[in-house]
Amino acid sequence: MGREAPMLVEEFERIERAAPETVWLEFVHGRLVVKPGADGARGAILVHLVGEFLAERPEPALYPYRGLKVGAGREGRARPDGTLAPGGHFAGDGEWSEPDGVLMTVEITTGDPDTDRRDLPDKRDAYAAAGIPVHLLVDRDDHSVTVYSEPEGGMYRSRTTRPYGAVVEIPDPVGITLRTEKLKDYA
After folding, report:
1. Which of 45, 67, 87, 172 has its CA 20 to 30 A from that of 52?
2. Side-chain-facing half-sphere of 114: CA atoms under 13 Å
3. Is residue 60 part of a domain?
4. Chain segment 113-144, per-residue pLDDT in tens
5. Is 13 inside any structural domain?
């Protein structure tokens, strides 16, 4: 039996447009992925992060679930839980935006360790390959926050992990101090 040809991004986008609004699809490293919806705790974490970022820097904005073209050749499509970019940055864009000008992506684990273990490293590497300067991972299973920065060669060279409750320094171009004590409430 022969190997099937990989799915093209145009095929993915056709499938994604036909999917019901309640289903979010992503296409990372040639794989079609169903992005789980935000449960109560995941949504609360995102709301908390929006408040933290607004308190530290009212500009830029943390956009929830913004579709991004990712990977070195922009052949992937991902929908991070949060995308930090200048206010109005995506105005006029369609469903999927170029990552140019994006300062940071945010992913919050789903609570399903199998899904997270399978999808999150691929997405992190796709963000790095796209040149997104910072990636923030809130790991609900591990009760930790990890900051990835310095993208080079499709990977982030720097990684810092702190437990919930710690003060986390997010490097430039984000340049804020993130307080994570409140995340313990959502563990």
Report:
1. 67
2. 1
3. yes
4. 766 676 789 999 999 999 999 999 999 989 99
5. no
